[in-house]
UniProtKB/TrEMBL annotation:
Database matches in Pfam families: AP_endonuc_2 (PF01261)
InterPro entries registered for this protein in UniProt: IolE/XylAMocC-like (IPR050312), Xyl_isomerase-like_sf (IPR036237), Xyl_isomerase-like_TIM-brl (IPR013022)
Lineage per the UniProt record: Bacteria, Bacillati, Actinomycetota, Actinomycetes, Kitasatosporales
Domain of life, source organism: Bacteria
Domain Xylose isomerase-like TIM barrel positions: 38-301
Name of the protein in question: Xylose isomerase-like TIM barrel domain-containing protein
Amino acid sequence: MDTAGTPSLDRIRIGSAPDSWGVWFPDDPLQVPWERFLDEVAEAGYEWIELGPYGYLPTDPARLSDETARRGLRVSAGTVFTSLHRGPAVWDATWARVGPVAELARAMGARHLVVIPSFWRDDRTAEIVEPPELSAGQWADLARGTERLGREVRERYGLGIVVHPHADTHLDTEEHVERFLDATDPDLVSLCLDTGHYAYCGGDSVKLIETYGERIGYLHLKQVDPAVLAEVVENGLPFGPAVRRGVMCEPPSGVPALEPVLAAAQRLGVDLFAIVEQDMYPCPPDRPLPIAARTRRFLRSCGA
């Protein structure tokens, strides 16, 4: 505890991401320019960032290193989307996407690659593109493919993969997350626990940390508005429209409470990134910075 009685979360490294500025795509007229994102994320008080969608930030390591360094920023991770439940036939296409992101992340000094399973429902059109439940064979393909990805990313790039349960993907609920963890090798596959997505899908983040603590390799911090979530569940809304209705809200007004999540993570006794992501696509360009600054102040009040 510090002298004011606030727990010291000295194992937690706070950052933010393009997602908190309404950035979901490499190039989109509804999104703020990357220069503005970098300026504002530094102004809001963050030192760590993620790359966001590959191609949004400069992909030349020398240029990106210059742009981040002069703003006092460092990169914690890159992000890739995968469809490994589709089996070995998608491996080459998967690796073609993974390689450039992993290369840039390594060049920027990052140690993590966030891996998000593909959506079964399109996040732009809400069209259902696959059944929401995997077959036993697809679960096996997902587990083996993810282990292979973890092994090859580590061997080729020195990065660890952290798999991100996400709304409208096959890795969403507590049941699915636990099934995935039980089916994969802890030495190859860790989890990126996104507190907002896990709550959106009915999960308890503190329980997951306390039960599978050795598998937690990374955190995304966000909260869900319970009233909006109830409407989403009642009407079966896809994730994209749910975001536009404000289902992901500014801390500390939503759930889960972040203080016990951060305390549980601190008790693991390992260094963890905790990257703020408040899904807001699309959003007015002047909206993100004040929210990001208030969120940083709130997390400092929690000891982080």
